[in-house]
Amino acid sequence: MHNSPNEINSVEDAARKAESSTLFSPKFYRTDYEAMNRINIEPVRAEWDAMMAEYEGDNNHDHFQRDATFADEVHELMPKLTPELRQEFLDFLVSSLTSEFSGCVLYNEIRKHVENPDIKQLMTYMARDESRHAGFLNSALKDFGLGVDLGNLKRSKKYTYFKPKYIFYATYLSEKIGYARYIKIFRQLEQHPEKRFHPIFRWFQRWCNDEFRHGESFALIMRANPGLLKGGNLLWIRFFLLAVYATMYVRDHTRPELKQAMGLEPGEYDFEVFRITNEITKQVFPIMLDIHHPEFRAGLEQLFACTQKANAGREAGGIVGRVRQAYWATAGVLTFAKMYFLPVKSNALPEEVRMAPAW
Ligand SMILES: [Fe+2]
Ligand SMILES: [Fe+2]
């Protein structure tokens, strides 16, 4: 049987996918723990303490357990999936697992290496949450006989070094966009339960409230250190906004069946997620991308086309394939650069940082 390099049909395929480090696959991070020690959250102490009390209360402590009907639903629904949808769903499970586990590893490493009591306490709670999320996804993969050995993944995955400020921008955004993605799926399937092709989606609402709170934590850290939110750092914020939005767009369009099976059109879904994320990031970022600029959407479409063509070149192989891959990869970078210089919108930061997950 011919196996496409992207298909997941065995534990080895799942492990390889989780370990792979392409531009669009979830990464693992290391950072500067000494610099983390110097983070001061005093300017937001009251909001910080309220948030710590929420973590302490742990309202999701019993959430990540399967209920009585979970296994029945899996057995009833899975055979109905088309092979394409099944592959896209497995890809979704592996990439979600990898990014949840990435958070778990990073937060745990920071917890182990810092003395700063505020940061240590926060990281302990967030690592707890991400470990539950990763475990729940991995149990869904195990139903297919495709569980990922997380200890092995932690050892063999390539790590990217990020200064703390890059960790704050990137992780804040990925927590918040993660919230927006999950809540949109949950709301859609709440209205169209017949399109819920796997029970895991029933868990998304309380799940994404964890992600929302993780994002709140990084928002407070950045607001307590306002130097991170002005001057030259605005260029970094702009970069991370575009990188995170573009990555999501390309990934979602690479697996369109997944959204279509839920009755969602991938482009519309992504723009709704951008809109929600833009609303949320007003709590911390003084700028936001103008997602309604006509060249913004055109740029994303172009970026996706470049990625597809670069991938086709890589898969074709040989000198011609490699030249095609390099050509379209460069075209992708240039498109990204062009989008980076599109005008952005500015925004005055609110007095109170905390927000409710109201979507
Ligand atoms: Fe998570
Ligand atoms: Fe999270």
Features:
359 residues; mainly alpha; two-stranded parallel sheet; two-stranded antiparallel sheet; 14 helices; 4 strands; globular; binds fe (ii) ion
Radius of gyration: 20 Å
Residue-averaged pLDDT? 95
Which geometry do the CA atoms define? globular
Instruction: Give the total of beta strands.
Output: 4
User: What is bound: which ligands?
Assistant: fe (ii) ion
Q: What's the tally of helices?
A: 14
Residue share in β-strands: under 5%
N to C succession of SSEs? HEHHHHHHEHHHHHEHHE
- The helical percent reads 55-70%
Unreliable residue stretches? none
Assembly state of the chains shown:
single chain
How far is it from the N-terminal to the C-terminal residue, by CA? 45 Å
- Sheet of most strands: 2 strands, parallel
Strands of the largest sheet, in order across it? Answer: 1-2
| SS class | mainly alpha
Structure description:
It contains 14 helices and four strands. The chain is mainly α and 359 residues long. The strands form two sheets. The chain has a two-stranded parallel sheet. A two-stranded antiparallel ribbon has the order 3-4. It is globular, with a radius of gyration of 20 Å. It starts with 10 loop residues before the first helix and ends in a 13-residue tail after the last strand.
